[in-house]
Design goal:
The structure is a homodimer of 361-residue chains. By secondary structure, chain A is of the alpha/beta class. Chain A has helices spanning 10-17, 21-28, 36-49, 55-58, 79-94, 119-122, 138-146, 174-187, 202-217, 234-246, 259-271, 305-321; strands at residues 66-72, 98-104, 129-133, 151-154, 169-171, 193-196, 223-225, 253-256, 281-283, 300-302, 329-331, 335-337. In chain A, the strands form three sheets. In chain A, strands 2-1-3-4-5-11 form a six-stranded parallel β-sheet, with helices on one face. A four-stranded parallel β-sheet of chain A has the order 7-6-8-9, with helices on both faces. In chain A, strands 10-12 form a two-stranded antiparallel sheet. Chain A binds a DNA duplex (30 and 30 nucleotides) through helix 1, helix 2 and helix 4.
DNA sequence: AGTCTTGCTGGAACTGGTTCCAGACCTTAC
DNA sequence: GTAAGGTCTGGAACCAGTTCCAGCAAGACT
């Protein structure tokens, strides 16, 4: 195969402009160390020769200024992660970086060496760094580590023992957030409070832990509605709603794993003629878009998704500049957003009162 | 900025496997010239070190195996060019090439040096070659030539003097196709035949030329309905339909520049209570999808769009392998597709007969 | 005048692959 | 025995940029 035509290189430009290659390179990259007259001469030579720098050669000894947002084991990019991605993108743009979105699917038990990477990660030199989100099992982290790309991760998606906190990650404190939310519900006079969420997922497990702590410290009895069947689906909500209503004593308030499920419960209750919050109170988690589509709007815990994304990007850039690891775990604060789904009960009276003031929006 | 971590290079692999770098490279690229035992040793070293070849370095001394389908001055990728693109893509895939789609906008009078290229063409080394389609003015070709990338073009989109046939191009013979189509209509007994199409576009101009030749050689009087106003829009069809019906003598058949306009005419006629083909016959051009959506389906000239795309890709690959130009112009045959929009008139009788046999589908 | 600083410049060395050539080794043929 | 041919292999040279360092000139300061 013959060589590609037009090998007009930086050396040709240098010759024509009567300067060294270093000078041409400095002009190309807007370096300041070039006098005005030389710069003009070089620019003239460039346009006269129709010189175009070679994309690959350029990226060989310097960074590509691309990072990859790698989403694991998710069929869809739903609103929660989409917001994080948006935060990453916003921050990246302001730092002159490109974000490439990629997905990966792997099993919890797949040996690290056998996990199949997306094409862009099979070769090195495409992206400078990685933001991990989705479902992060230890085998996955191990494999990512083995390809020696700087990475940061969304900590709340991390499965596995606590020692994995050593990874560079951005997260929020789900335990504390749910503790506070539960405390708020208790303060509203509720005693029978249930928790709904599949605790095999770490994000639900820590929320559940916070709920338990709040219940215990108030001397109340925690109740967990768990289920091995698919989470988040509307089937799951139907099933959970049925179970909740059959409990005895029937809970007056429910702490729900996330807004999606809370929405499902609300719809199921509504179908059964149960009113929220008059008959039963609901508290969600995440503050997704769907929280405002409910009637009344959902009281929930706001997770600063964009801020998480931005912080991830900032942290990744830090790592790029000094790969000499400075293990970090940044925690983004959450915020209880009180809207309309928690009813105020008169203290010490477990029975609902029709005179309860409505919650503020 | 510190260097990117993990500089595990091909030389590290070579050292560990106790072979030369050339051998590792041969293994990586599936070269045959390596003994089985050596190959195994190298593969083991690669996986032990977690070596990933460097994307950019790899593409420096070899081709990228990407080509660019560059579409000029079109807001949308409509069905005609989409089919050509599909042909290019199909052929590219079978040849192990990637197709990158890019668009460009420029003015007919923009000086070549000032035409702004899409980012992927600003640097060299992204794509090996170019397929041009859309609106091709001489200044554009000149600029493309100046960046020294092998290119081929869809010839029928080329504006400018005939000497531009020198470019490597794939095209179809619109003149001949329309000549034959017009001859067919004449054979059906029509004498008053008009042509509709904006002849400032070369593709319409050549079709018009074929129409004229057929009319002249049959001793008939050619009639052109031209208009400076936007082509292809439904407004244009409305306007054209009104004009056609007011002509005296009123044409019994119309050769239309393309199927899109033919569809517009058909709809306008229908609104005015004029029946196709009983009251007026129509012949389109291109054989786009829309031809079959008409009732009756449109008699038209089939352009082998996919085949044009495939031929473009093949020709481009030829050029890549031997850039030493072998100027070529490949002509893809067209085909008159007789469906239901041309009425058979009894010869020598310009007035329509109700007993005319219906055209075959 | 001598030294220091600063700004600009040239070019060698480097990036990490591929390619090519010469040479080693092993058959097979005469 | 040796010439010819084939397969396999090592490594230098190359691709086209960037980076770095030394060198030079001019101006500033002692």
């Amino acid at each position: 195969m013959e060589p590609v035509p037009n090998p007009i290189t930086i050396r040709d430009v240098a010759r024509v402009a009567c300067v060294g290659v270093g000078t041409v390179s400095r002009v190309l990259n807007g370096g300041r160390q070039v006098s005005e007259s030389t710069r003009e001469r070089v620019k003239a030579a460039i346009s006269r020769l129709g010189f175009r720098p070679h994309a690959q050669a350029r990226r060989m000894s310097r960074r590509t200024e691309m990072v990859c947002f790698l989403m694991s084991n998710r069929e869809f990019l739903h609103s929660f992660h989409a917001r994080i991605l948006k935060g990453v993108e916003t921050c990246a743009r302001s730092l002159g970086q490109q974000v490439v979105f990629a997905v990966i699917h792997y099993g919890e038990k797949t040996p690290p060496g056998q996990i199949v990477l997306p094409p862009i990660l099979k070769e090195r030199g495409w992206v400078d760094g990685l933001v991990l989100a989705g479902t992060i099992y230890p085998n996955f982290v191990e494999h990512i580590q083995s390809i020696h790309v700087p990475y940061v991760m969304f900590g709340n998606n991390l499965f596995g023992p606590k020692h994995m906190l050593k990874y560079d990650q951005v997260s929020f404190d789900g335990e504390k957030a749910e503790f506070e939310a539960t405390q708020f519900v208790i303060e509203q006079g509720h005693h029978e409070i249930a928790f709904v969420g599949e605790t095999s997922f770490p994000w639900f497990r820590e929320r559940h832990a916070g709920y338990r702590r709040a219940m215990k410290s108030a001397g109340l009895n925690p109740v967990l509605l768990n289920s091995q069947q698919g989470n988040g689906s509307s089937d799951y909500a139907e099933w959970a709603a049925r179970n909740l209503l059959q409990m005895s004593p029937r809970p007056t308030a429910i702490m729900v794993g996330n807004d999606e499920i809370a929405f499902g419960l609300w719809r199921s209750f509504r179908k059964s003629g149960i009113n929220v919050p008059d008959d039963i109170s609901l508290v969600g988690f995440d503050d997704r878009d769907i929280a405002l589509l409910m009637d009344p709007p959902l009281t929930t815990v706001r997770v600063q998704k964009e801020e998480i994304g931005e912080t991830l990007m900032k942290m990744l850039l830090d790592k790029l500049h000094q790969p000499s690891k400075h293990l970090a775990r940044q925690v983004i604060p959450t915020q209880l957003i009180i809207r309309g789904t928690v009813k105020h009960l008169y203290s010490n009276s477990p029975s609902a009162s029709l005179l309860a003031p409505s919650a503020n929006i």
